[in-house]
Request: fold
Amino acid sequence: MAASGKNNFGMKEKQVLSPIDGGKVDKIQPLLKYAKPFPRPGALAEVFLILKNNTGKRVEGWLTITPPCGWVIEPGRRLMIAIRPQGRILAEFFLSTPEQPAQGPHLLQIRITAKKEALLAEAAFDIRPGLLFLVDG
Reply:
């Protein structure tokens, strides 16, 4: 089977991550979903960010995603979002690993701000466990 630039969850282990401790996730609860392992450097991996609004009010604002150092994110880092009260949304994006991933944690950071840049949520996910590259035969 030929490899595609954008991964299919059908042939890999699905990984769902909660954010690491220390963020602000009481109003908006984020989860990160991706297929493990990430593809080789230069190939794009499909990633989903699930956002749950834990408030009784509609949330409108900006989602900013900052990938780990050296990683590439497509289509971009900033997305306008709206989530109904107690609702969920799914933000899809693509990540590409660097040629030489650094040691230590690989933190993907998210920040959700409302109008006038009021902080609604901030979280980080360590996606280093997804760096177990497949070896070609």
Observations:
- The chain has one domain: 26-129.
- The chain is about 0% helix and 45% strand.
